[in-house]
Amino acid sequence: MSTEARAVTPARADWKLWVVGIVALLWNGMGALDYVMTQTRNAAYMAQFTPEQLEYFYGFPAWVVALWAIAVWGGVLASVLLLLRRRLAEHVFLVSFLAMVVTTIHNFVLTDGMEKMGGGAAAFSAVIFVVALGLYLYSRQLARRGVLT
Q1: Out of 35, 59, 75, 85, which residue is the most buried by the measure of CB atoms under 10 Å away?
Q2: Stated pTM of the model
Q3: Does residue 42 fall inside a structural domain?
Q4: How many domains does the chain have?
Q5: How confident is the model at residue 116, as a pLDDT?
Q6: Residues 6 or more apart from 10 whose CB is under 8 A from it?
Q7: Distance in angstroms (rounded) separating the CA atoms of residues 142 and 2
Q8: If residue 32 lies in a helix (H) or strand (E), which one and from where to where?
Q9: Residue 46: CB partners within 8 Å, gap ≥ 6?
Q10: In a domain, 88, yes or no
């Protein structure tokens, strides 16, 4: 095989890419479901929250809602791109992660979200942060190894 042919042939993806990609799609799909249920004010879904928490959710400024949408839908898109072995997954995971960081700062630093939502919400946000960062770093590693094209 010539050097040129090897340069354009992507590195082989192992089974871990498929496992991570499918789990990432399911994980980010749950975030997207939460976004849709909250934005459509689905009564059955929103019944789990107190009136104060509902007021808090429904009072988000438009820019927070927009960044929340970018975070969750970006995560879904990046997961699909990862499964398709596209290098763009790395960049979309990064944008999704950064949007999530900004919304988290708004929700727990700039507002009284910790008080309204309780410590469990902050702990779950920390898990979301770690997963989102991990997916970005994983996709970056795959892109650098030539697995993503």
Answers
A1: 75
A2: 0.86
A3: yes
A4: 1
A5: 75
A6: 85, 146, 147, 148, 149
A7: 23
A8: helix 15-39
A9: 37, 38, 54, 57
A10: yes
